[in-house]
Automatic annotation (TrEMBL):
It comes from Streptococcus hyointestinalis. Belongs to the UPF0340 family. HAMAP family: UPF0340 (MF_00800). Gene3D superfamilies: Hypothetical protein TT1679 (3.40.50.10360). The lineage of its organism: Bacteria, Bacillati, Bacillota, Bacilli, Lactobacillales. SUPFAM superfamilies: TTHA0583/YokD-like (SSF110710). This is UPF0340 protein NCTC12224_00691. It comes from the Bacteria.
Length: 187
């Protein structure tokens, strides 16, 4: 796999999703990643440290520019726990759990997060504002309600299907209510 091309495509996809999601500084962005799927294999069957590192580092760099936090979802072997910066876990009073990811329990994305984050920890769960799912890893459980599907500019990264979610406040009040403009749907 051409890692430079992977970096460029990841950057293009994540910038597109960040622009569409209307996040504010301090918001949390979840990444679900199957490096196996990116390589065209079945999820969990061909994990790649190099692919995970390119994707996570590229996304972290873009989020840092915007003052956003990254949470990297692990696989089902870690009950979909997430790697975040310790300061985020402490600030949000998230439940820190004691586990270190490996290539086949947590995955390449979590290993890369431990490599590139300043002070990474695993947390049991999170409520994020938006996220990207590279390889159908099911990030929806970590995105705040009301979830809004976003259609990425590119719907594939390597061999992986790419989807994304943002969130917006609930609309309440019924037929007499008026609402603020929706920055995501823009209607």
């Amino acid at each position: 796999m051409d890692l430079q091309l992977l970096k460029e495509q990841t950057q293009e996809i994540v910038c597109d999703i960040l622009d569409k999601s209307a996040l504010r500084a301090g918001s949390i962005f979840v990444l679900g990643l199957s490096s196996s799927e990116v390589l065209g294999s079945v999820i969990g069957q061909n994990s790649s440290v190099e692919v995970g590192e390119v994707i996570v580092k590229t996304i972290l760099d873009e989020l840092d520019k915007r003052g956003l936090f990254l949470a990297v979802q692990g696989c089902e072997h870690l009950n979909r726990a997430l790697v975040v910066e310790r300061r985020l876990a402490e600030e949000k009073d998230l439940e820190i759990v004691n586990v270190l990811p490996s290539l086949h329990a947590g995955g390449s994305g979590q290993l890369a997060a431990f490599k590139f984050m300043d002070d990474p920890v695993e947390v049991e769960e999170i409520t994020a504002h938006a996220g990207i799912d590279i390889g159908d890893t099911s990030i929806g459980m970590h995105i705040k309600r009301v979830q809004v599907p976003l259609v990425p500019l590119q719907r594939e990264l390597g061999g992986a299907h790419v989807t994304a979610l943002a969130s917006r406040p609930k609309l309440i009040g019924g037929s007499r209510a008026q609402y603020l403009a929706d920055p995501i749907r823009k209607y």
